[in-house]
């Protein structure tokens, strides 16, 4: 059976890009593969210094993951800090990846430019991400487009480690959806929708009220061409709406472009489609959050299952290197 691993940071509220680019694919994956999904709180430390918030974000994110449809009976959902093997293999990966490789990561360049304090962890972030993936012998990593470079570096370090120490890790590949792999900001359609956007008007959160979602789409930035074509270069705002509408309805963005003359109708239909898609998720999310003890129980089960796999891979890696086992 195919093994799938992917993770998300509890660094803010989940948005439409996370859902269409990644989470929806995770849910589809659980019926054809053995799937592991991590809430990577240690990664989120690179952006958090406020005490107390990370735990709450982690629990809310767990509720989102079950609300979008991950089934705890078949999908292993766990918190990264509950599985210490991530940090342990992370160090091994730091010693396998080079300074030059890390320096070329575009996410590091983007994020470090926007911060006063740039931690060493932000720089070595991809090494921990490689550990997340390699610990589970994952063949496939379902992600949005922005993670491609991180999966490439994971492949490179796996191949390097295997070359140095003998076949140890499965070399994974990124899997992105045909539409929705790069959802753009509604106010600035040349930037991706992100948890860290300047304002919230361009980001649609999974927990937004229907009226807010409607408003955000009606105010989406388009252009002054007054024609609907699917052209990401010339009409990024319109193309983004078409992508979102296509992803929400299972249609094709080019075909949809032919059925619209006016931006107003396209914005309204896209907002309506997103509201309809999110309604059942929002209901389940509210229900799940009512029982935090149950969420905690599900995460404990997830961590146990994850550790079962991760511990075996870590000792295989330590053994391949030739670290002295404790006697
Ligand atoms: P994160 O938490 O930023 O995002 C989670 C997932 O959402 C996707 N995504 C998007 N997809 C389409 N359009 C967008 N605008 C958009 N924004 C985000 C991301 O591609 C991702 O799939 N480094 C990772 C977390 C991570 C990870 C891993 C992922 C840590 N270890 C191991 C995969 C495997 C991150 O920051 O994702």
Q: Short summary of the structure?
A:
The chain is mainly alpha-helical. 54% of the residues lie in helices and 7% in strands.
CATH topology of the largest domain: Rossmann fold
CATH top level assignment of the largest domain: Alpha Beta
Characterize the biggest β-sheet. 3 strands, parallel
Number of domains: 2
What would you note in describing this structure?
Strands 1-2-3 form a three-stranded parallel sheet. A two-stranded parallel ribbon has the order 4-5. The mean pLDDT is 96. The chain is built from 13 helices and five strands. It is globular. It is mainly alpha-helical. 54% of the residues lie in helices and 7% in strands. The chain has two domains: 209 residues, Rossmann fold (3-Layer(aba) Sandwich), CATH 3.40.50.620; 77 residues, Orthogonal Bundle (Tyrosyl-Transfer RNA Synthetase). The site of tryptophanyl-5'AMP has 25 residues, from strand 1, helix 1 and helix 7.
